[in-house]
Design brief:
Blueprint (H helix, E strand, L loop, with lengths): L11 H10 L7 E5 L12 E2 L9 E2 L3 E4 L13 E9 L13 E5 L11 E4 L3 E4 L2 E4 L9 E2 L10 E3 L7 H9 L4 E5 L3 E7 L3 E2 L10 E2 L2 H11 L3 E8 L3 H11 L4 E5 L10 H8 L1 E5 L3 E2 L5 E5 L2 E6 L3 H19 L9 E5 L4 E2 L5 E9 L2 E4 L8 H4 L3 E5 L5 E2 L4 E6 L1
Parallel strand pairs: 5-6, 13-16, 13-17, 14-15, 17-21, 19-24
Antiparallel strand pairs: 1-12, 2-11, 3-10, 4-6, 4-7, 5-9, 8-9, 18-20, 20-21, 22-28, 23-27, 24-25, 24-26, 26-28
Helix pairs in contact: 1-6, 3-6
Amino acid sequence: MTMRPFTSTISITEARAIIAAGMPLIARRERVALSNASGRVVAADVVAAFDVPPFNRASMDGYAVKAEDTDGASRTAPRSLMLAGRIYTGDVPTVVVTNGTCVEIATGAPMPDGADAVVMVEETSLDGDRVAVCTPVHTRQNVGPRGADISTGQTVLQSGEVLNASRVGALAALGLADVEVWSRPSVAILSTGNEIADQGQPLAPGQIYDINRFTLSTVVNEHGGVAAPISTARDTLDALDQALDECLRHDLIVFSGGSSVGERDLILDVIKRRGTVLFHGIAVKPGKPTLFGHVEGTPVFGMPGYPTSCLSNAYILLVPALRRMARLPPTLPRTMRMPLSARVTSVPNRHQFYTVRVVEGQAVPAFKASGDITSMSRADGYIEIPADVTVVEAGTEVVVTLF
């Protein structure tokens, strides 16, 4: 067996900078229905073509009046007005309010001509066709004016804003059925290795089931991309070349396995021959054998095959890169400060991302080995141990970044 050991590694800070500089922004746009727009990124400013609401409307159930007719009204000396009609939501008012008259009106109904205020029903009493008004109102009281929410020509949403429930609601208020958004990056996910078996198939001797295809797909789908799993490639140059051709139909490529230093770790050779390797090897634990480069202008990640290493670097490196490509804002990490429950050692000169569980206000070590997915699945988050620290003692206050 011929091994090709790492001759140098770069820091996590350098790796992040190289990846950020090497990630193009998605350039495709598409229109999506409002019902499917949550989480999408607006691709063009949305400008209102009309006022919202498009008419003056009552903001309370009550009576539309001329405000001057209520001057001096009180419980002991109410003002008596003649009931001239009723207006419900969806009605087109045909009655005109004149001095000495009023119109019963429902919340949200259009204000009739002549009326400039609404008296709440609780401040009135009805006797036949006469309404006793027991409190004065001023002009525009309890009236939602036309265009109070959105005015004609107003930029309602700007390109680059991420759609949520309220922003989708603003589009719905404009009568829009769909919206122009940036397309989600399509991400080819390829596991490599003769030892990889597909779920549902019996394991041959020396084989393991593919984990990374599913963890990586989940990460991609949760952070603005569309995962496109590719059939597992064997550890030969021809097989990897063919797989790469299929992957190049997508916006971003993520390999797992084949990026280390063994004789059959051939991803480095394939990418070097067909593109550019920007780095190979990061001074981190887990995840040292990670590479990043380009093939025909498409960014390529080579992730470690070990599930914990792969998933750890997916969170730390792939997520920021993918969100940048998808034009999404960076994630805001959720962190907690708490004491470490047990002593932890770290490899010298490697920045370690050490998984922990949160138990009764303490950070409990959860890391087992880079090949053990339960190092992640049983963890709530991770702590970071700088490259120049080799021991973190029990009781030390640490910052836990939650998954």
